[in-house]
Write a sequence for this structure.
């Protein structure tokens, strides 16, 4: 029987907001502070508790967090930052914001992750991305960075709530100089929009805090002094209230994502999926932000994308390699066989805590129908 489109769109990711979230935002709206009040500070303390890091500075987006990390670490003209080819463009753009150069590095063709080997080139800063919620070998990468005299900034936009190695937490900065988070609605913790810089270095945290508010230092009474050129990258109390309420549910969100991911894995171990699509083994510590399947080739992936969309399943491709964007010119970098192979075949299936069992079953049936229709 022909599969009919799902009655409503199933996105690849979305926020999961409940009454407790709404109540805290409304309470904040009724309070004396909606912008720079107590919620931002409380959110920052709770981020420290959840990740085990010493300092967290909440900002207006993950992109702002990347920009301020670069400025805070003193990256600028003449410096080279190394960024995986497979990531969201913001990971590379932050280097351009400060006048630094971007060097792209290759990733594993199945997991999309970098390794210590990816960072064998010299650079002033390495940006390992915890792609899809799985944390790369930050310990090995930090050793490579120490040898090269480079900073390490974990782009943990996908991985808050994840663990790696012998139980280290993503964004704890146990092996990195800084980490950044994003609180965009598709991420684990939604604050509407928002981000944070995390670090164990007080000097860096203080500088980032200053830079997020114009580069200003508060003096006595009415006096304040702008000591360097900063930005208006502050988070509001409304965003922080939502972020706090969401963060309290992070362990449950990650657990639900893991249950959904295992369900996909189990289904795909059988006919007709087995041998037709490939998935990376799910790391036990992964926060499973994305569930990525790989098709046999680019043509099949494109057909599958269209088939899903025709059936109201809004799968997505994460990501077009950043060096392929027109702005980056697709030249001046070495061959990236891992990034190319990854990009050619990857497709992210719906995965978010509020994804219902029935919706997930439809996604599985949709993929099954596609594979049966396109046999041989
Ligand atoms: C890997 C990665 N880094 C950085 C960002 C930027 O975060 P934001 O959208 O909060 O600026 C994103 C957001 O999509 C991301 O996926």
């Amino acid at each position: 029987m022909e599969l009919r489109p799902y009655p409503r769109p199933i996105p690849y990711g979305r926020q999961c907001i409940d009454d407790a979230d709404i109540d805290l935002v409304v309470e904040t709206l009724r309070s004396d502070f909606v912008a720079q009040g107590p919620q931002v500070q409380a959110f920052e303390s709770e981020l420290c508790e959840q990740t085990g890091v010493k300092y967290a500075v909440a900002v207006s987006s993950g992109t702002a967090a990347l920009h301020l990390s670069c400025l805070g670490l003193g990256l600028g003209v003449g410096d080279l930052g190394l960024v995986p080819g497979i990531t969201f463009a913001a990971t590379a753009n932050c280097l351009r914001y400060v006048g630094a150069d971007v060097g792209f590095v290759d990733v594993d063709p199945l997991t999309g992750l970098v390794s210590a080997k990816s960072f064998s080139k010299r650079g002033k800063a390495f940006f390992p991305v915890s792609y899809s919620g799985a944390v790369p070998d930050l310990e090995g990468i930090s050793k490579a960075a120490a040898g090269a005299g480079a900073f390490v900034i974990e782009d943990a936009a996908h991985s808050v709530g994840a663990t790696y190695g012998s139980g280290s937490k993503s964004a704890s900065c146990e092996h990195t100089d800084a980490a950044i988070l994003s609180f965009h609605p598709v991420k684990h913790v939604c604050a509407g929009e928002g981000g944070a810089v995390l670090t164990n270095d007080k000097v860096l945290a203080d500088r980032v805090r200053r830079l997020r508010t114009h580069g200003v230092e508060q003096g006595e009474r009415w006096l304040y002094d702008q000591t360097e050129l900063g930005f208006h990258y502050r988070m509001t109390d409304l965003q922080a209230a939502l972020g706090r309420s969401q963060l309290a549910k992070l362990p449950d969100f990650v657990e639900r994502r893991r249950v959904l991911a295992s369900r996909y894995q189990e289904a795909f171990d059988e006919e007709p999926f087995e041998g037709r699509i490939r998935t990376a083994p799910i790391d036990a510590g992964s926060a499973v932000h994305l569930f990525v399947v790989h098709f046999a080739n680019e043509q099949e992936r494109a057909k599958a994308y269209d088939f899903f969309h025709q059936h109201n399943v809004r799968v997505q491709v994460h990501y077009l390699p950043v060096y392929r964007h027109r702005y980056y010119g697709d030249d001046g970098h070495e061959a990236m066989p891992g990034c190319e192979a990854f990009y050619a075949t990857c497709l992210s299936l719906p995965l978010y805590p509020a994804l219902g069992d029935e919706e997930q079953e439809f996604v599985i049936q949709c993929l099954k129908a596609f594979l049966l229709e396109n046999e041989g």
Notes: The pocket of pyridoxal-5'-phosphate is lined by residues 61-63, 87-88, 90-91, 129, 155, 157-158, 182, 184, 195 (CB under 6 Å). The CA atoms of residues 18 and 246 lie 9 Å apart. The radius of gyration is 21 Å. The domain at 19-247 is CATH 3.40.640.10 (Aspartate Aminotransferase; domain 2).
